Amino acid sequence: MKQLAIVLVSGGVDSCVTAAIANLNHDLALLHLNYRQRTEERELRAFHDIADFYKVKKRLVTDVDYLRQIGGSSLTDESIEVTPARPGGLALPATYVPFRNTHLLSIAVSWGEVIRARKIFIGASQHDSPGYPDCRPEYYRAFNRLIEVGTRPQTTLEVVTPLINLTKREIVLKGMELAAPLHLTWSCYQRNDLACGVCHSCMQRRKAFQEAGISDPIPYLT
């Protein structure tokens, strides 16, 4: 009997490939959070499309709109511009949502305790340049220690990061290898109809597909 694993699925390439990896050896439960980001509607559609593709019945979609109230990110505060990607830049982009992964993972741990999941898969990559602080291996080592001391003694649950050491190009290639439904994904930070093609996430995605020698299956505005 396969163990149950929760997969955090935003609807992007990384989370889609992570779901494909988890699906190899686990029964899936998919988690998606709406936090009033600019592309919330489109990301939610991508989440359900991916869940349908893998025939996942156990899904949790929840709202954490307090992240919008907290602000500090161009994803949740429309008064902050979603600036175009700057190749080689070292500073965190304005799209960084402060401490976001901790909020997402905390909900996943709570749900995992209830449904008796054994793993929580998240598509974090430390090569997500410029590097987000909550996408580093040491962050996940610390979080797994938090799960160990902060849950019931009988709980056996850990966060798994199968993409942590992969580049975006390698992630796309892994997705192709596993026949992941990359055509159902959405990466753009600011549009719900056609991907803008210039935000940090769009530029990373386009570069990854180009380097992998694969045609990106989604349309772009520019």
Radius of gyration in whole Å, from Cα? 17 Å
Number of helices: 7
In percent, how helical is the residue content?
25-40%
Distance between the termini: 47 Å
Q: Uncertain segments of ≥5 residues (pLDDT<50)?
A: none
Strand content: 5-15%
Number of individual domains: 1
Estimate the global geometry from the Cα principal axes: globular
Classified in CATH, the superfamily is HUPs
What does the average pLDDT come to? 92
How would you write the strand order of the largest sheet? Answer: 3-2-1-4-5
CATH class wording: Alpha Beta
CATH fold annotation? Rossmann fold
Give the biggest beta sheet: 5 strands, parallel
Count the beta strands: 5
Structural class: alpha/beta
Overview of the molecule:
This protein is of the alpha/beta class and 222 residues long. It has a single domain (3-212), classed as HUPs (Rossmann fold). It is built from 7 helices and 5 strands. It has a 5-stranded parallel beta sheet, with helices on both faces. Helix 5 (137-150) links the parallel strand 4 (119-121) and strand 5 (158-160). Helix 6 (168-177) packs across helix 7. The longest helix has 16 residues, at 100-115. It is globular, with a radius of gyration of 17 Å. 42% of the residues are buried. The mean pLDDT is 92.
